[in-house]
Write a structure and sequence with these properties.
By secondary structure, this protein is an alpha+beta fold. It has one domain. The strands form two sheets. It has a two-stranded antiparallel ribbon. It has a two-stranded antiparallel ribbon with strand order 3-4. A hairpin with a 4-residue loop joins strand 1 and strand 2. The radius of gyration is 14 Å and the shape is globular.
Amino acid sequence: MDQAAYERLVHFLDVPTLERLLAAAVPGPVQRHLLPGLKALKFVLPQALPGGVYASLRPGLHWQKAAIWLLLDLCIDGETVCLPSQIEERL
């Protein structure tokens, strides 16, 4: 990934956007950590597994896979980040 692509992701994948997109699955705050040396972003959702992975009935690894699927299914059109189902609404 080149620097311009990383900066674009940093711009579009901000905390308010992720909180809005993930609100139905994981209510609560989203923490974003930038890792510019790796050209990576790390998102932490403290309330995703209440009480920790062993105290929760929510499967941690499955949620990680679901989060990756959700992010890979996003459309970045230069203006907003939207789910594919929302693209038709914007046309």
